[in-house]
Design goal:
By secondary structure, this protein is α+β, with helices and mostly antiparallel strands. The chain has 6 helices and 8 strands.
Length: 202
């Protein structure tokens, strides 16, 4: 683990999908909400982003569904470098609960109230359509290699792929549902929405 939940990057995503029995139908392409933090923030500042930002984000103004996502920095022993796990709020909640449980157990076992699993080995696994976190076990040299990345700049803003306004306009104009297209700028009405041609007799 390269960071506690307080160090995880929280941002918002616009996504509107429906399961059709074989896969998902999407009303529009999934994209990052412009009204999202650009870096790690604490709870007091995150509160400013919990509501849709209709003045800051065109997708919010169009009424696109909005979900919270988390980026979690970890060290991958296989590739000997850090990686970022990108998951929805529901899965992050499960991991945070496990994180707190492991940390409290170890604080009691070591009689050290300051014990943290940041910099320690952990194992992520899929359980019942979500994820769980368990204590792991790796060689000491792996732990030391991982610790070099604690506090690093993980480039969360770049990974979140914030789009330019023109890209968002194009993306929303291609939506098949789930948004109000009337808020989009410079929208050309469809053929069936054009006024009927008038004929004049001279």
């Amino acid at each position: 683990m390269l960071g506690s939940p307080d160090d995880w990057f929280i941002y918002f995503v616009h996504e509107d999908k429906t399961y059709n029995g074989r896969g998902y139908d999407h009303n529009f392409r999934k994209h990052t909400c412009s009204h999202s933090p650009k870096g790690v923030v604490q709870a007091s500042e995150l509160a400013n982003y919990l509501r849709a930002g209709k003045d800051e984000c065109l997708s919010c103004k169009a009424g696109a569904k909005r979900k919270m996502f988390f980026m979690i920095p970890v060290y991958d022993p296989q590739y000997k470098t850090y990686r970022v796990i990108d998951i929805a709020e529901f899965h992050a909640d499960s991991l945070i609960a496990d994180y707190d449980k492991i940390e409290k157990t170890m604080q009691k076992a070591t009689k050290n109230p300051e014990y943290s699993i940041v910099g320690e080995a952990a194992f992520f696994k899929q359980v019942d359509k979500t994820y769980s976190l368990e204590s792991g076990d790796v060689e000491d040299d792996v732990i030391e290699a991982a610790k070099a990345f604690i506090g690093a700049d993980f480039g969360f803003e770049e990974l979140a792929n914030f789009r330019e306004k023109d890209d968002i306009v194009t993306l929303l104009s291609e939506a098949v549902g789930g948004i109000d297209k009337s808020v989009l700028p410079n929208q050309t009405p469809a053929d069936d929405e054009l006024p009927a041609e008038e004929k004049f007799e001279f």
